[in-house]
Amino acid sequence: MSRTHFTVLQWLSLSTLLLQIFPLSHGDVGTAAQYGPPYTPTACYGSDPTQFPSSNLFAAAGDGIWDNGAACGRQYLVKCISATTPYTCVPDQTIQIRIVDFAPTLASQPSFGGTTMVLTETALAIIANSSAPSINIEFQQDYEDLSWYDERRGVPYLMVSRRNEAAKKEGEKVVSALV
Ligand SMILES: *[C@@H]1O[C@H](CO)[C@@H](O)[C@H](O)[C@H]1NC(C)=O
C-alpha cells in the first residue's frame, strides 16, 4: 500500500476516533428571522465587499449572541426545528453561516424583531419555507478545522472543528496523533 493511501486511512480512523472523543453536541435553541439587501454597511466590516461569503450564507447576530462585537466572523451551524406554521422546516438540513452584522442596526428591515439571529433570505430558504417571517432554530458555533502533517514524526494531526466550549477555553487542545 502506498504511503498516500495509508495516510488517507489514518485520517479516516482519526476522524472516527475524534467523533467519539467529542460527540457532536446539541446546540442551543433560538429563533431566526430573515433579511434581504442592502447588506452594507455592516456593523462588523462596514462596506468591505469581501466580507460576504459568495454562497450568501451569512447572518446578523441578535443581542443574545452579539457578544459586544466578538461575534463578528464567527461561524454557526444552524438548523430549523419548528415554526408557528407546520411543515415550515426543511427536514435534516443544516447550514453554516458567518456573522457579519448586528441585527438591531441592520441596513434593511428584518422580517421579525428580537430574534437570536437574522439570516439572509438565501440562508433561510435552505432550511425553511422562504415565506416564514421567523423560525425556531438549533445552532452551535462551528470552528475551523486545523490540520497538519508532522514530517518528523510522520503522523497527521487534526484539531477538530465543532469543539465544545470547554476544550476551546483550555486553549487549542490538540487531540492525539495516530501512530
Ligand atoms: C410556504 O408557506 C406558505 C405560507 O404559509 C404556503 O402558502 C406555501 O404553500 C408554503 N410552501 C411550501 C413549499 O410548503
SS-based class: alpha+beta
Radius of gyration (CA) equals: 19 Å
Name of the CATH class of the domain at 28-141: Mainly Beta
Number of helices: 4
Largest sheet: 6 strands, mixed, barrel
The succession of helices and strands, N to C, reads: HEEHEEEHEEEH
CATH-defined topology of the domain at 28-141: Barwin-like endoglucanases
Average pLDDT, all residues:
82
Shape: globular
What ligands does this structure carry? 2-acetamido-2-deoxy-beta-D-glucopyranose
Largest beta sheet: strand ordering: 1-5-2-4-3-6
- In helices, the fraction of residues equals 10-25%
Strand content: 25-35%
**Unreliable segments of 5+ consecutive residues:** 20-24, 163-179
Keywords: Signal
Domain Expansin-like EG45: 30-141
Protein name: Expansin-like EG45 domain-containing protein
Signal peptide: 1-27
Topology, please?
Layout: H1 3-21, E1 28-35, E2 58-61, H2 63-66, E3 75-82, E4 94-102, E5 117-120, H3 121-127, E6 134-142, E7 146-150, E8 155-159, H4 165-169
Parallel strand pairs: 1-5, 2-4
Antiparallel strand pairs: 1-6, 2-5, 3-4, 3-6, 7-8
Bound molecules: 2-acetamido-2-deoxy-beta-D-glucopyranose.
